[in-house]
Amino acid sequence: MLSFAIRRLLTGIITVFAVSLLSFFVFNALPGNPAQVMLGLDADQSAIENLEKELNLDKPATLRYFYWIGDLIRGDFGFSISYQKPVIQVIADSMPPTISITLLSIALTVLISFPLGIFSARRHHKWADYLITTLSQIGLIIPGFWLGILFLLVFSVQLNLLPSAGYVPLRINIVDWLRSIILPSLSLAIISSAVLIRMIRNSIIENMNEDYARTATGKGVTQRRVFTKHILKNAMIPVLSIFGLQVASIMAGTIIIESVFSIPGMGRLLLYSVQRRDLPVVQGVVIWIAVVTILVNFIMDIIHMAIDPRIR
What is the pLDDT along the chain (312 residues), one digit of tens a residue? Predict the structure, then answer.
């Protein structure tokens, strides 16, 4: 277990390094002068030159990368010209809405996908199975942002039940906090649940037809015990890997969904920073997303090993 954790940690560090390298050179390869974009087209030439020196834009790209990665290792993400704050503070200010939406989306995904996936597998080739499978197929082809717009039209514009925009912090009012994030979270959860429902259903059906399940039933073990103790446990092994990918997909989906609902989170921060060519903020957000994604997959691998002794 320890050697596995060390290997995964080293792999994660290499992955973050690769992401940092890619993001830095991709954003620095964009046409135009970032300093002039930040200050505006009417900015004074001397102000542009001073900002170029401050951001090391007057130096070669390779040297700028090593300057940046050195500061990053020391915990210095740079300074945002657009927000006039350290990048780490800008990211921290935008993090609560994104974390709230992500956690609620994950919780809703679990509550929707696992019961429906298990129910569909237990009702294999019956009308309930066909209905759930059809709905999940529809969920696979619907974009999350389109579903968010549909929810806005129904629940905010037509029924006037939920707010159409904005975010209320949890510390102010838990009910208003939940009302402000339920629609974007549900939009992301439905799309992720569509993938997991099919995966859970197919994995359970496959294990129900395995020899070990038929052998246990032939020995007189009740079907309920065979299902809960053997089939369900083995069926969840491949599902965990897909679940980790869906968590990463939910995080990526917040970039678009926050713009749809005008929520001041990491997604809107990233889009605004790209438009303003605020490279330190863009690179900081990309690194944060990469680290969280790697951490989630690392946790899924540990759980995977705990469930399946064959991997250990």
Answer: 677 777 877 888 888 888 888 877 777 766 666 666 666 666 677 777 777 777 666 677 777 788 778 878 787 787 777 787 888 888 888 888 989 999 999 999 999 999 999 899 888 888 888 898 888 888 888 888 888 888 888 888 888 888 888 888 888 888 889 988 999 999 999 988 988 998 999 888 888 887 787 787 777 777 788 887 778 888 888 888 788 888 888 888 888 888 888 888 888 888 888 877 777 888 888 888 888 888 888 887 777 777 766 666
CA-CA distance, 304 to 83, in Å (whole number)? 42
Q: Strand ranges (DSSP E) for the chain?
A: 79-80, 85-86
What amino acid is encoded at 25 in this protein? F
Q: Could you report how far apart the first and last alpha carbons of the chain are, in Å? A: 7
Say how far apart CA 240 and CA 114 lie, in whole Å. Answer: 11
- Tokens coding 300: 């899924």
Q: Give the three-state DSSP class for 240.
A: helix
Contact assessment for residue 30 and residue 275, using Cβ atoms and an 8 Å cutoff: no
Which residue, 213, 256, 217, is CA-closest to 234?
213
Structure tokens belonging to residue 310: 């064959």
Instruction: Compute φ and ψ for 311, nearest 5 degrees.
Output: -70, -40
Q: Which of these, 112, 43, 54, lies nearest to 78 by C-alpha position?
A: 54
Contact 28, 283 (CB under 8 A): no
Angle between helices 2-28 and 279-307 (to 10 degrees): 160
Q: How far apart are CA 111 and CA 105, in angstroms?
A: 10
Angle at CA 110, nearest 5°, toward 97 and 129?
135
